[in-house]
Write a structure and sequence with these properties.
Layout: H1 19-29, H2 33-45, H3 49-61, H4 69-81, H5 85-97, H6 105-117, H7 121-133, H8 141-153, H9 157-168, H10 177-188, H11 193-205, H12 213-225, H13 229-241, H14 249-261, H15 265-277, H16 279-283
Helix pairs in contact: 1-2, 2-3, 3-4, 4-5, 5-6, 6-7, 7-8, 8-9, 9-10, 10-11, 11-12, 12-13, 13-14, 14-15
Length: 284
């Protein structure tokens, strides 16, 4: 899994110690980018790390200026050299994704590590990704677990989800279904679709929780309503087999059709079987 977080664009944590940077951030909120640029450039020239970070973001996103990745990297680097965690994180993301600089996983890890050491939860999550996939470092599930846990403890849903998966399908830890359910639930409560789907599967199989088909149906229904093809496929199966709901071939057909229309091959296969056995359902 090589999923990396997006770059933090214009991040302001509380009030700045520099009044001009605060004013610049207010201008940015009002989309008055030229005024913001003037103030940030002034403070950047004085060596203010937050101003340099935000100036980098302005150039990276092309806000009121011509988009210029080289300048963005230049200002992020100045800010990062002063230990500004968000700038270190953005540089890591730039090198990891190859957007704004040549892809370089080793450099990405270096900057993520510096940022993670300061407690930035997004950097901790991305370091977990790098160690899990072996990008820029030797693959190390245990180190990945360590960084995912730090990020998850700060409420990052994707970190909670991946940790849950690593406990369910053991990677670097002993298999622990209860722990997986706990983590999936935390991520699901934040609306993460992958976690909600996997949680539904745990309820179907009774892994880490008491088997509860109705709860699984409830979870899959929420996802199906959002157009999730896998959830629609699973709901079709629940209605076809009468698991957690009353057996209903027509509803099964309806959910499989929705999933099939999105290219879900298993649903397409099941539809063919269903329509062969019960042609009247498919012709009405």
């Amino acid at each position: 899994m090589k999923r990396l977080l997006l770059i933090i664009s214009l991040l302001s944590i509380g009030l700045s110690a520099n009044g001009n940077v605060d004013k610049a951030l207010e201008y940015i909120e009002k989309q008055e980018f030229k005024q913001a640029h003037i103030l940030l450039e002034k403070e950047s020239n004085k060596g203010d790390a937050e101003a340099q970070f935000n100036l980098g973001a302005i150039y990276y996103d092309g806000l009121g200026v011509k988009q210029d990745y080289k300048k963005a990297v230049e200002f992020y680097q100045k800010s990062a050299d002063q230990g500004y965690a968000e700038a270190q994180y953005n540089l890591g993301s730039i090198y990891a994704n190859g957007q704004g600089a040549k892809k370089n996983y080793k450099k990405a890890v270096e900057f993520f590590q510096k940022s993670a050491n300061q407690g930035l939860k997004e950097a901790q999550y991305n370091l977990g990704i790098m160690y899990r996939a072996g990008l820029g470092v030797k693959q190390d599930y245990k180190k990945a677990i360590t960084f995912f846990q730090k990020s998850a403890d700060q409420g990052v849903a994707k970190a909670q989800y991946i940790l849950g998966f690593m406990y369910e399908k053991p990677q670097g830890v002993k298999q622990d279904y209860k722990k997986a359910v706990e983590l999936y639930q935390k991520a699901a409560d934040q609306g993460l679709i992958e976690a909600q789907f996997n949680l539904g599967g745990m309820y179907i199989d009774g892994q880490g929780v008491k088997q509860d088909y109705k709860k699984a149906v409830e979870l899959f229904q929420k996802l199906a309503d959002q157009g999730d093809a896998k959830a629609q496929y699973n709901l079709g199966g629940m209605y076809y087999n009468g698991l957690g709901v009353k057996e209903d071939y027509r509803k099964a057909k309806g959910f499989w059709q929705k999933a099939a229309d999105q290219g879900e091959t298993r649903a397409q296969h099941n539809l063919k079987i269903l329509c062969t056995k019960y042609p009247e359902i498919c012709t009405q």
